[in-house]
Amino acid sequence: MPFTTCIRARSLSTAANRFGLPPTIRQILSATKVDEPIAVTGWVKSIRKQKNIAFGVLSDGSSPMGLQAVFRENLGERVKLITNGTSIYVRGNIVKSPGSGQDKELLVEDVEILGACDPETYPIQKKTHAPEYLRDYTHLRARTDSIAAMVRLRGHLMRELDRYFEKQGFAYAHTPILTTGDAEGGGEAFRIAPVPPPPNHEFFGHHAYLTVSHQLHLEALSHSLGRVYTLSPCFRAERGVTRRHLAEFWMLEAEWNVMPIDDPRAQTASLCDFVEGVVKGSVGDSGIIHGKDVDVLWRHRDVDSASEDVKLKRREALVRAVTTDAPWPKMSYSDAIRELLKSKQEWTFPVVWGNALQTEHEKWLSETLVGGPVFVTDYPAGIKPFYMRANPPVDGEDEATVGCFDLLVPHLGELVGGSMREERLDVLHASMASKHMDGERYGWYGDLRRFGGAPHVGFGMGFERLLGWIGGIENVRECVPMPRWAGRMIL
């Protein structure tokens, strides 16, 4: 037995060395001891050359902080060839840094230039570049501090969301990108076709589209797995060019079965509470909101008109919102309309009961009226999709509403939308007929109710919008590595 244990321990140790990768700069800065020899590769973020010594900042993208490298006189000829953007391989010892700004630095013993970078033509200079300029260099813009921080934050946020849903008993589901229809019914789907086109028939035998939402597929899975979610790409052929929209974006979507209760509006309120928990748990409780990458993004905010004091107050309000124990307020759509009318504001889009809330209305409700996130519930049935559950009538209100919500947050507007799903087959058919939908095409959707249907709820959250809210990023084009929007796709 002792012999077996010894062999197993040695095998695991060997496997760790055999399959492991060299430490990243992030790992070097956090774990490497002083006087320990290291070797690392990376890109030079900046280089300052003096007569007998040079100081460079080396980055491999793993950390907001670069590794300061000190090149001594004996490396002079090779150091002369190093410029901003050069990729290099260095060996040396980690030493305690005598200067301010970093605890450790690398005293370089040997350097090898892996890839030269012409300083005259390199598009990413040390100065701050406007987002519009960097969008023309999609393939290089991740070398800037802000885009690199955004990419790292995306990964961190995805991991925290996965962790939260796992704790809540959800199964992650891989839902299809190719689909037969438009889940939202908005007619803004991309239709796909093979190249070259087949002579006489569709590839699948019928029209196929890039998915605009994974909701309907998740609903099917929730009727067997109970609680399911996905974080997957979606596509919408929206021609409008705004700060909040992309043609290709990522959505966090979840569907799950719920206990039947007598008051449907209480079910909607419970759904809002769960969504609040998702945001607070993955952003606030996880510590993401206090992370270094978030610091980088707020330092590089692309809002020229916002003073440092204004930015500080906005970030403090954000931190309070995601860390407070106090529940986020809820109001009905009807109450929201009444508040908007009472405000006496001059709106670009008139405030009328039965019309969708516009971004200007959403921002006023969250920024001015509430001063933080707010759930608006129970919208008119006529402006919402067919699958939302009809609310029972309310005394004093003649118009039909559905059990749904939008989560509105300051400086963005809508972040999340969700609803109770209509589980009553006859009511679902009536809703589809009122919207002139093809019942035969959605026959499978009716089967979910026909064969053991159950009350269920769900929501969708724009991942880029969540990232932008956390990082103070005004435009979702800076919330995804390689953005696509109408008339624009590089790479």
TrEMBL record:
Per its UniProt record, what CDD domains does this chain match?
Answer: EcAsnRS_like_N (cd04318)
GO terms in the biological process aspect are: asparaginyl-tRNA aminoacylation
Please give the superkingdom of this protein's source: Eukaryota
**Residues covered by the Aminoacyl-transfer RNA synthetases class-II family profile domain:** 152-481
Q: Where is the signal peptide?
A: none
Q: Which GO MF terms are attached to this record?
A: asparagine-tRNA ligase activity; ATP binding; nucleic acid binding
List cellular component terms (GO). mitochondrion
Listed EC numbers: 6.1.1.22
Name of the protein in its database record: asparagine--tRNA ligase
Q: What is the lineage of its organism?
A: Eukaryota, Fungi, Dikarya, Basidiomycota, Agaricomycotina
